[in-house]
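Quick review question:
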């Protein structure tokens, strides 16, 4: 059994109900672990794939990510009140399937350096 110190919870930006977040928050609180909330967002109309990329598209993407960051902070607030350390990351991703996830999402490199291994729940001990 391994002690768990950090948990990554990927948030689905397309739905309100986040059952995985509830489980991750419970586990973090009971194990004394930190919790990282991550949302990866893509919208084909803002991607620049259909039209040339422009400053207005970049501004729209920035606003969408800012809204996603605020949503993550809203989700994190009640969890923080229970004493869990919660960090948040919102990132724009591209539709390309040719590049690796880490190459598409610079935040993934940061996250992977903070979360060194993925431990199966069967080996977790609080």
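Suggested answer, residue by residue:
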């Amino acid at each position: 059994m391994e002690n768990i110190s950090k948990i990554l919870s990927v948030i689905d930006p397309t739905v309100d109900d986040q059952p995985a977040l509830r489980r991750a928050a419970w586990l973090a609180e009971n194990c004394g672990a930190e919790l990282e909330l991550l949302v990866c967002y893509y919208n084909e109309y803002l991607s620049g794939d259909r039209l040339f990329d422009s400053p207005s598209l970049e501004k729209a993407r920035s606003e969408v990510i800012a809204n996603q960051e605020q949503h993550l902070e809203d989700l994190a607030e009640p969890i923080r009140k229970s004493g869990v350390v919660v960090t948040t990351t919102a990132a724009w991703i591209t539709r390309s399937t040719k590049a690796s996830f880490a190459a598409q999402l610079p935040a993934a490199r940061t996250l992977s350096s903070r979360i060194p291994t993925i431990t199966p729940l069967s080996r977790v001990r609080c």
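Why it works: Strands lie at 2-3, 6-10, 34-41, 86-92, 124-125. Residues 2-125 form a domain with the Rossmann fold fold (CATH 3.40.50.12370).
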